[in-house]
What does this fold into?
Amino acid sequence: MTDYSRFRLQALTPAIGAELLDCDLTKMDATLVEEVRAALLKHRVVFFREQDLTREQHIEFAAQFGELEIHPATPKDQADPEVLRIAHGAKSRGSENMWHSDVTWREAPSLGSILRAIELPQLGGDTLFSNMVMAYDGLSDELKEKIEPLSASHDIARVFAKRLGKAPEDLHDKFPPMVHPVVRTHPETQERLIYVNGAFTDHIVDMDPAESEALLNKLYKTAWNPELQCRFRWQEGSMAFWDNRSCQHFAASDYFPDVRVMERVTIAGDRPYFNAAA
It folds into this structure.
């Protein structure tokens, strides 16, 4: 789909990202949902401006794209458990400043997330996104052939043991390490993409640790290429919806000690696989 009836699309870069302009997310219908999904699949991440959604409307919009998941960092007594509040300020420096895909430690990592700006610093706090389909396409044929049969282990404890103040063993009781293919087939577009990230990927299965570390570091760095990226500057009323399967993101933590508060609602996904025939 290249023609849209419910918004004007303005691409951010040739590689990734588009703003969906003149779009009112309070006026949801099947056509709007279909067109947003089509733009998401094509551009990997889509952005909205000047949205005045309540928390309930945020949840309702996300639910149009699938079942919602609850993050283990969400307080158990929170009224709306589907919402993950990410707040930083003078007493909490931002720690999401690494390239990553969300929750790859799940058996079925998320399809995508919708992030809404609640309170923003005067300057800074941008979010960057990188196209992991293009990252795969840019590899040599030799390297593609090497990594396509491989699988890697993803571990929640790498990030959340310290953040939640829990022992890795306690986290693993509910969320044991998960093995996913190093190269993933996108379930809707059938594109191939690099599916390892520096936050949660622990090691390549059945590979010498030193070789695993060297190969993973090489693959992680593919996301760092500015030619595969876009950078979104948040404003009041801004929202971002990214395809967590095909892109990675990086939240710039350059605003300390200013306050940055965001709310995220996440759509559940399916188990990653690699289709050699696709």
Observations:
- The two ends are 22 Å apart (CA to CA).
- Helices lie at 30-43, 55-63, 132-137, 141-147, 157-164, 168-174, 209-220.
- Residues 8-267 form a domain with the Double-stranded beta-helix fold (CATH 3.60.130.10).
- DSSP finds seven helices and 16 strands in the chain.
